[in-house]
From TrEMBL:
<feature type="transmembrane region" description="Helical">
    <location>
        <begin position="251"/>
        <end position="274"/>
    </location>
</feature>
<keyword id="KW-0813">Transport</keyword>
<feature type="domain" description="Major facilitator superfamily (MFS) profile">
    <location>
        <begin position="54"/>
        <end position="527"/>
    </location>
</feature>
<dbReference type="Pfam" id="PF07690">
    <property type="entry name" value="MFS_1"/>
</dbReference>
<feature type="transmembrane region" description="Helical">
    <location>
        <begin position="493"/>
        <end position="513"/>
    </location>
</feature>
<dbReference type="InterPro" id="IPR036259">
    <property type="entry name" value="MFS_trans_sf"/>
</dbReference>
<dbReference type="InterPro" id="IPR011701">
    <property type="entry name" value="MFS"/>
</dbReference>
<keyword id="KW-0812">Transmembrane</keyword>
<keyword id="KW-0472">Membrane</keyword>
<dbReference type="InterPro" id="IPR005829">
    <property type="entry name" value="Sugar_transporter_CS"/>
</dbReference>
<feature type="transmembrane region" description="Helical">
    <location>
        <begin position="361"/>
        <end position="378"/>
    </location>
</feature>
<feature type="transmembrane region" description="Helical">
    <location>
        <begin position="152"/>
        <end position="170"/>
    </location>
</feature>
<feature type="transmembrane region" description="Helical">
    <location>
        <begin position="41"/>
        <end position="63"/>
    </location>
</feature>
<dbReference type="GO" id="GO:0016020">
    <property type="term" value="C:membrane"/>
</dbReference>
<keyword id="KW-1133">Transmembrane helix</keyword>
<feature type="transmembrane region" description="Helical">
    <location>
        <begin position="327"/>
        <end position="349"/>
    </location>
</feature>
<feature type="region of interest" description="Disordered">
    <location>
        <begin position="1"/>
        <end position="35"/>
    </location>
</feature>
Length: 527
């Protein structure tokens, strides 16, 4: 991969004219042209990110059915030759039995037992994906700092295409698990998109531009699972084969969503190759234009004070702040992702929610989060005072939502005739809080990381910190939280029940909020 990105980067670099030659025969460009170019790049990144996240979210609701299909197909072979799936399911069943031996929950029926086994195995696959991203994210960031965002992004897209092809031809669980492994190790679109946006935006407009990343997430998590479920109904059957280069290849039962995923990723790759310019050296190549834009752009008093304070901070202080933001990101996502993952467990066990009802609940969260991202968050005018405020309110909102979910098992049953029963009010109040949390916290923490690594405030040569590496480490910490949070939360849920699971989660979130208030939140004064 290093050789591949080096070759692509070398071609991009040769095509990029030096700043001195570009400015020798022309007058200084006006600030508006730079802003229009920057906005165009942000739009390109946004469209590509929507395609990428749709491809990522489409398989999410299919995990249980995919695994169930593999179980049915491999059951006839497992007694004679154990497979990866049979060994993994044996581990999951042993773990589930151990957890329920300490549990105070009602015994499971055979049908429910099979469902929980599939859900736990789906959680393990999700954790595998997140663990792969935890490992690879810092390296992708460092490579993008050295060779540029565009070549690393295109190289990672090749890995995503390979992952989709492996799913398409996954005739047993081992191949499908390999596709998830390859996908996790090559998924760099989100962090590289954030790095590209950071490269081309000024601190004044960055928060609003980064909010588009949250909009893309919300749109994808609203539409992707529904599209996946729709295309999954177009099952082709395992008896179908296709001929490739004279060889008969068996395709997966859910080849239609796999093929749609491959098409989406192909469109994204082609679009990025044709439309996305290199952004890594954007400000270096157009330094004069940056100065003109900075001189003409209106700044708030809070922005000017924050920029002056950043210039005075030593490299060691900036490093300490970045590490603190990484730990906050890990802690927040550890508790929040655990609550997200077990939410459908809760609605199933308490109210016997169907897949359609759970889909409506998750769709409500996604649509509301999209509206908040596109409206409220993007309209936060202050580049540095807005994100700290959003982080603080988002974390405390998450705390309140977790408290509501902890109380939910004790407020009565869901009324089939009334939308305003206590259970409905508590559940959808918590869901509303989750929508606000999804639209604010991670986007705002990302903006704060970008401020700490912005080239405008890194005038100390020895302390220069590159966007890609810093954002890679930041995302890596969050992915570790996403990998561990659902596993730990599920175990607590099985052993002690939902009240304890969400109560402990709320306590953990209160600790994160307290850490923010005593740490970064206290250091950044919001006027």
């Amino acid at each position: 991969m290093r050789k591949m990105v080096s070759t692509i980067r070398s071609k991009d670099h040769q095509a990029r004219p030096p700043a001195s030659l570009a400015s020798a025969g022309a007058t200084s460009p006006s600030p508006p042209s730079k802003r229009l170019s920057s906005k165009r790049i942000v739009r390109i990144v946004f469209f590509a990110l929507v395609c990428d996240l749709l491809a990522f979210t489409m398989p999410l609701p299919l995990f249980p059915r995919l695994i169930d299909n593999f179980v049915l197909e491999e059951s006839k072979f497992a007694p004679f030759s154990p497979t990866l799936l049979s060994r993994t399911l044996h581990f999951v069943r042993t773990l589930r039995a151990k957890l329920f031996s300490y549990s105070s929950l009602a015994p499971l029926t055979p049908q429910s037992t099979a469902r929980w086994d599939l859900t736990l195995l789906g959680g393990l696959l999700s954790s595998l994906f997140s663990l792969c991203q935890f490992v690879i994210s810092p390296h992708l960031g460092a490579l993008s700092d050295r060779y540029g965002r565009r070549p690393v992004l295109l190289a990672s897209m090749l890995g995503n295409l390979i992952s989709a092809l492996l799913w398409l031809f996954a005739n047993h669980f081992g191949v499908y698990a390999l596709s998830r492994l390859v996908g996790g190790l090559s998924e760099g679109n989100v962090q590289l998109s954030i790095a590209a946006i950071t490269d081309v935006t000024s601190p004044e407009e960055r928060s609003r531009s980064l909010a588009l990343v949250g909009v893309a997430f919300s749109l994808a998590f609203t539409l992707g699972p529904s599209l996946g479920a729709y295309f999954a109904s177009r099952v082709v059957g395992r008896v179908q084969r296709i001929t490739v280069a004279g060889h008969q290849l068996e395709i997966n039962s859910y080849a239609v969503p796999a093929l749609v995923t491959f098409v989406l990723l192909s469109i994204e790759t082609l679009y990025l190759a044709l439309r996305l310019p290199e952004t890594r050296w954007w400000k270096e190549d157009q330094a004069e234009e940056d100065k003109a834009s900075a001189a003409s752009a209106p700044k708030s008093v809070a922005d000017e004070k924050a920029a002056a304070a950043a210039l005075k901070r030593t490299p060691a202080k900036r490093q300490a702040r970045l590490k603190e933001l990484q730990w906050l990101h890990f802690g927040f996502l550890f508790f929040f992702s655990g609550a997200e993952f077990t939410l459908t467990f809760l609605t199933y066990t308490l109210f016997d929610y169907t897949n359609a009802q759970n889909g409506r609940l998750l769709g409500y969260i996604g649509v509301l989060a999209s509206l908040l991202q596109g409206g409220y968050v993007r309209r936060m005018k202050s580049s540095t005072s807005g994100p700290p405020r959003l982080v603080r309110t988002g974390i405390w909102t998450c705390f309140i939502s977790l408290v509501l979910l902890a109380i939910l098992p004790h407020v009565g049953s869901m009324s089939p005739t009334s939308r305003f029963s206590n259970a409905n009010i508590f559940l959808y109040s918590a869901a509303t809080g989750f929508a606000y949390v999804s639209s604010t916290v991670v986007t705002s923490l990302t903006a704060l990381v970008s401020f700490e690594t912005d080239s405008d405030v890194e005038n100390v040569k020895s302390g220069k910190k590159s966007h890609g590496e810093a954002l890679g480490k930041f995302r890596s910490s969050g992915q570790l939280g996403r990998a561990l949070g659902p596993l730990i939360s599920t175990m607590v849920y099985f052993v002690w029940g939902p009240t304890w699971a969400y109560a402990l989660g709320s306590i953990g979130m209160a600790v994160v909020a307290s850490k923010w208030s005593r740490g970064m939140g206290k250091k950044i004064k919001v006027k």
